[in-house]
Amino acid sequence: MAKLYFNFSAMNAGKSTLLLQASYNYQERGMRSLLFTAALDNRTKVGEISSRIGLKSDALIYDTELDLFACIEEQLKEQQINAVFIDEAQFLTEDQVWQLARVADHLRIPVMAYGLRTDFQGKMFPGSAALLAIADILREVRTICWCGSKATMVARMDESGNIVEEGDQVVIGGEESYISLCRKHWSMRKLGEPTENKDALADILCEPVDH
């Protein structure tokens, strides 16, 4: 039975790298993977999924109006699809998450969504909330705070490097605009120096990610 997966994390945890690697694994075995990315994400080329380490791939674009089930069903008429990958899944609507569930349930194609869980104010994105509610498999992609603890929160910074507490939920940006923090230092609005506790980092990054 095909399943709907949600791989979630804080910012800059390597979600796109994992997505592209998983897609490549399918393609390497002669299978077809279908990739989608959000129209909102214009950090590089629109319609391209790219990672911080240089991996990239073209992808179909989705906005809030696209019926993902209908789109994937149409693509399926042209060629077999073995897996569907969704980048920036926090930008999905609740309806689109249910459409992806239908892809897994009725078209029998596994769907792997990758995205943030919460925004810079600690509030859930609509797409992430729906995925956490109905996805078959939840996987946390781990990253670390400057202190060495697991980072679960995202802070937004202005041009001077100061933490921003108000503003629109969606402001596209990368490392220059966002930083991942543990809950303690996110609550304190505290940025700091990298930890010297290498054992703590290893423990965090080596923990199992499946729930």
Automatic annotation (TrEMBL):
Residues noted as binding substrate in the record, renumbered to the chain: V170, V171, I172, G173, Y178
Highest taxon above the source species: Bacteria
Keyword Cytoplasm: yes
MF annotations from Gene Ontology: ATP binding; thymidine kinase activity; zinc ion binding
Protein's cellular compartments: Cytoplasm
GO biological process, any: thymidine metabolic process
Sorted UniProt keywords: ATP-binding, Cytoplasm, DNA synthesis, Kinase, Metal-binding, Nucleotide-binding, Transferase, Zinc
Binding site residues for Zn(2+): C145, C147, C182, H185
The keyword Cytoplasm is assigned to this record: yes
Record-listed E.C. numbers: 2.7.1.21
Binding site for ATP: S9, A10, M11, N12, A13, G14, K15, S16, D87, E88, A89, Q90
GO CC annotations, alphabetized: cytosol
Top EC class, one word: transferase
Catalytic activity entry: thymidine + ATP = dTMP + ADP + H(+)
NCBIfam families xref list: PRK04296.1-5
Family of the protein in this entry: Belongs to the thymidine kinase family.
Name under which the protein is recorded: Thymidine kinase
UniProt organism field: Pseudovibrio denitrificans
